[in-house]
Amino acid sequence: MYLILFIVFAGFCLAGAINLLLQTHPINSALSLIVVMTSLAVLYLLLGAEFLAIAQIIVYAGAVMVLFTFVVMLLNAGREERTLGSRAARPIGFTAVVVLLAVFATVILRVQGLNPAVLGHGLTNAPNQSNLVLLSQVLFHELLLPFEVTSVLILIAILGAVAIARREGAERTAEK
């Protein structure tokens, strides 16, 4: 059953990533990136990393994507064209929802008697030590520098986007 869930959500992740690259509208690309990040959260959940899955949803699919969406909207200050959406979106979306609900129903019906210890596939921790303790040890001891560098790079990218938008806005007002 885990293999089926992995294949389904890995497919969602790949489809969202491909859609991200093929979209011409930045907001649609941001929505595709949310699909990718949510699918990754489900994959983390399947691996037994509950905290990482929730952090993926809250931090990346939530806060960072809202921030990216604001930056994209700030850069695209012009008027948007109205479309009714993709023609393939409805049949693919409907099929994906039906498959997703069928997989969830199957999992709920079959997993009722599972032991939660079975979910932690490759984690080697002491019986009284949680996955959160292991994650915090790795993140804040071994990977502290890459963690901080990533946060600084995201901050620099956002400041650069705001500076570009301000300069273009000042050029537009100077032309009028």
TrEMBL record:
Belongs to the complex I subunit 6 family. The lineage of its organism: Bacteria, Pseudomonadati, Acidobacteriota, Terriglobia, Terriglobales. InterPro entries: NADH_UbQ/plastoQ_OxRdtase_su6 (IPR001457), Nuo/plastoQ_OxRdtase_6_NuoJ (IPR042106). Keywords: Cell membrane, Membrane, NAD, Quinone, Transmembrane, Transmembrane helix. It catalyses: a quinone + NADH + 5 H(+)(in) = a quinol + NAD(+) + 4 H(+)(out). This is NADH-quinone oxidoreductase subunit J. It is an enzyme of class 7 (translocase). Its EC number is 7.1.1.-. GO terms for cellular component: plasma membrane. The chain crosses the membrane at residues 6-22, 29-47, 53-76, 88-109, 143-165. NDH-1 shuttles electrons from NADH, via FMN and iron-sulfur (Fe-S) centers, to quinones in the respiratory chain. Couples the redox reaction to proton translocation (for every two electrons transferred, four hydrogen ions are translocated across the cytoplasmic membrane), and thus conserves the redox energy in a proton gradient. It is found in: Cell membrane. It is a multi-pass membrane protein. GO terms for molecular function: NADH dehydrogenase (ubiquinone) activity; quinone binding.
